[in-house]
Design a protein that fits this description.
The structure is a homodimer. With about 280 residues, chain A is mainly β. In chain A, a hairpin with a 2-residue loop joins strand 1 and strand 2. In chain A, helix 2 packs antiparallel against helix 3. Chain A is globular and about 50 Å long. Strand 11 of chain A pairs antiparallel with strand 7 of chain B, so a sheet runs across the interface.
């Protein structure tokens, strides 16, 4: 069967499928395959918002920065995505994006797109200097009531979820983990957006206690252009995620996403609400 | 003379002074004291946007996350600030913010405010373990055609601007620097917003070449509540700033801002355009 836009054969393509309503207006639908404990996986919602700009005929360039704020859990089913082109410069474009359900705002955000050209370039951060290959590590088990976790083949080098959730604190909240879409899928800017939200909440790694949490905002900077994504293909990426502060109901987490060729594809950060 | 809202006596208060036009509509004015090479210091513009939410009678809580996108350099003079309250939850609030000049969009952004309450809390990142005190370091010189730099007393422990701009690359782009408003001023969420943009562009530290640059987007997470800011007072903060990738016209930089008591006040990141 052909993989047409109407019947995408990868669950991620269904999660970011958009029905056009008019300029900058789309309908998306939550997918059971990407369900989370309450509402869908935020990464899938973020990716649908990103996709609405990627598919907009007014778009120039590729994403370089994207912020999404999760104002409320989504209900299962349809939601409306709206994009506004705020300004187009010679090589950059500024977008506002948002999602509503039954007329109520469920997400807001902004995106910067740019036409990049070759310049002096240097890496500065470095990937872990040595690591066990993806194929030699066991896949992490799924998470109860979080079907979206099964959509990523996650293999931890360090900092996996606790085996016992007894509240004995770990020394730190850092993880190093291989990640790949399941089934494997060519990486693109939409799936990279989602993947940046696929790191487990740092408080679980550090605190080993299952407290209620929710991401309130996420920002991603894209270092990867289309050529780097094509070179990555559907191979696993290596992620390193950490926290800097857990304080009075909120913690931050930041992560780098490295290609199979040790190139930095994206750096991302988020602020997460927690209770207790 | 009394320090009234109409005649603030600190230049920063003039830079964030807002004249109310109506609900969510304000006029701000660029200030010569915070001028940059082209248009005003972005941190001052960001702070004025933050201030528009802080002063809004609909506001609940304090800022926890703020993203501002710089769509165009501002012209000197008045600009209009607009805020939209997108959603109010039980303890959080989502805002969209923006600035226009002569009807054209010059900045966009989003803010999350929250009522925080005491929970389990742990630091994770650590400030530099040893450092020379502020009083024992020389103040960094100003920067030609960037008057805003004089509004911060900056004292570098490591990674200052090059003394010779000859393009011989430094080993890395990391700086550790004391920062204080000049004249000293009680730290608040607006001045902390501006301060997060006061780290010199990482490409200057790394590349030692004065290429054209401009911040396109900045995101700040606020770990500090009003009590922590009051405890800090007008003492210097310690900042650590670094980059992770310089690539094809864009680099990212991230920083932590530490209080005089070694508490994390804010973590911030930005994406910066560069030419050549």
């Amino acid at each position: 069967m052909m993989n047409t836009e109407e019947t995408p054969d990868h669950p991620f393509d269904r999660a970011i499928a958009l029905e056009a309503l008019g300029e900058g207006r789309w309908v998306a639908r939550t997918q059971a395959a990407y369900a989370n404990m309450i509402g869908p996986f935020g990464g899938a919602t973020a990716a649908a918002l990103m996709q609405s700009v990627l598919r907009d005929p007014r778009r120039i360039g590729i994403p370089v920065a994207f912020t999404v704020n999760f104002a409320s859990p989504l209900a299962d089913g349809a939601y409306e995505v709206g994009t506004s082109l705020m300004r187009t410069n010679r090589t950059t474009q500024h977008w506002s994006v948002g999602a509503t359900q039954s007329g109520a705002v469920v997400a807001t955000g902004t995106a910067v797109f740019a036409m990049r050209r070759q310049t002096w370039s240097r890496p500065e951060a470095q990937p872990p200097s040595s690591f066990v290959p993806f194929d030699r590590l066991p896949r992490a088990p799924g998470v109860r009531r979080a079907p979206w976790v099964d959509r990523y083949d996650m293999r931890y080098l360090t900092g996996g979820l606790p085996s016992v959730w007894d509240g004995t604190e770990a020394a730190d909240a850092t993880s190093c983990v291989w990640l790949r879409d399941d089934p494997p899928r060519q990486l693109d800017h939409a799936s990279l957006t989602a993947l940046c939200d696929a790191f487990m909440p740092r408080i679980y790694v550090r605190r080993r206690l299952a407290v209620p949490i929710g991401t309130v905002t996420m920002t991603t900077y894209f270092h990867a252009d289309d050529d780097m994504l094509a070179a990555q293909g559907d191979r696993p990426v290596l992620g390193v995620a950490r926290a800097s502060s857990f304080r009075n109901g909120y913690f931050d987490q930041s992560a780098e996403v490295w290609s199979a060729d040790r190139q930095l594809l994206a750096s991302t950060c988020q602020l997460v609400y927690y209770r207790e």
